[in-house]
Amino acid sequence: MQVVSTIAELRTRLADERASAFVPTMGNLHEGHLNLMCLAREHGSCVVASIFVNPLQFGPNEDFDKYPRTLDADCAKLQGLVDVVFAPSVNEMYQKSKQCSSSRRRLPTSFAAPPAPDIFAAWRQWC
Q1: Is the separation of the CB atoms in 41 and 16 below 8 Å?
Q2: How far apart are CA 113 and CA 119, in angstroms?
């Protein structure tokens, strides 16, 4: 298992892979995450797990700083289940020179419950 922390390292590592399966997480892994890693193996010859605590997924009254960061323990759990762990920093993911903007679109009304205000903002940041 290889741990990489930059997008460039990840691209290099995956350059020759035929099919990759990607499982995004915020770390602090539990059995449900590990089951997803096993399922991912059925869909790709290379399994990549990301561990990234995304500050944009936290609201103003949610404590980003107190979210558990357990990278060493997470990597130990992932050993033998994944080929690559992508563990970038916030600066790596949100490089100012590479950010883009997007416009908000109205969400469909078919959700069972209304989404949290601007819950998709974190996803819109990535181009």
Answers
A1: no
A2: 13
> What pLDDT, in 10s, does the model give residues 73-121?
999 999 999 999 999 999 999 886 555 555 555 555 555 555 555 555 5
Q: Is 33 one of the annotated active-site residues of the chain?
A: yes
Provide the edge-to-edge strand list for the sheet that holds 46-51: 2-4, 84-86, 46-51, 20-25
Strands (DSSP E) contained in the chain are 2-4, 20-25, 46-51, 84-86
Q: What is the rounded CA–CA span in Å between residue 22 and residue 50?
A: 8
The answer to whether the pTM exceeds 0.90 is no
Annotated active-site residue in 23, 27, 33, 49: 33
Q: Scanning the structure block, which residue is given the tokens 């010859």?
A: 45
> If DSSP codes are grouped into helix, strand and coil, which group holds residue 94?
coil
Report the chain's mean pLDDT, rounded to a whole number: 83
Judge residue 58's burial from the number of C-beta atoms within 10 Å of its C-beta, 0-12 exposed, 13-18 middle, 19 or more buried.
Answer: middle
